[in-house]
Amino acid sequence: MIMEEKQTMTNKELESELQSLRTQERISNILLSACGVGLLIMCLVKNIPLAVLCIVGAFFCAIRSNDAGGKVKKMLSENITRSVIREVLGDDVEYNPWGKIEPGSMVFPFSYNTTSGSDHIMANYNGLEIELGDIELQDEGETTDEETGVTTTSRHTWFKGQWLICDFGKKLSGQVYISQRTRKDAVPMKSNVKMDNEQFNKRFCIRADDPQEAYYILTPHMMEYILTIADNSGGTLYMSFLREGKLHVAVQTGRDFFELGKEKVKTEKLCEKFKSELRWFTDIVDTLRVEDSLYKKELNE
After folding, report:
1. N or C terminus: fewer CB in 10 A for the chain?
2. Phi first, then psi: what are they for 115, rounded to 5°?
């Protein structure tokens, strides 16, 4: 499917409108936080009328913030994002700003039961099928107060970032999982494979059904490459090489793709920023697709 591009505004009009919407979103978020603090104080002093007023104010601030954020995403999609995606990935692309990628098999130091996401991209990139998008992994649970019988729902976000799936179209040498260690890990991860590269062992948890499969895929060159991309990822890196032929790359950046950021809105800078974000992932695909050690050797070869 060829993705259409629509340029609906001039650069100056776009910059002015985006700046205005970002200001509106920020003010709404500040007021939302103020209503939250006010609600807490009113509950402590048992001032019910003002507590209700704070709840109503928070509700309208949240609506206004979400409305501004939605308009920003739509405006960026129509004027910048689609053209950037097409320039980096080619014409055979489907992009849904509100769509969600489905996560695959990965080793994390946490468990989750709920997912959400946006900026879902599907493309045929240089002959390979890829998927890419923002994703959040959350653990949602319910607790019921024994005295009042009131049930409340809590949700904790463990992961917010980007996820790439690349289908290489042929079987890989094995099934190997690589997870970058951090001091904030909820559960310390333990490797079941030890590599010759001590720096790699220290920074990553390595899991494989068969240790020999890890040695096939994680050659000295591959380990050095993964260390390099981890340094440039802007977050915490997780990778899985699946026997069926798929590579999964997840990066916990704490942000979404295609954001305005905090600087003054300039369309040219936004274009370059968005291209850089996408090319970090396409560079991985371009580099790994030519690694012979990645693929299973057929018996007739």
Report:
1. C
2. -130, 150
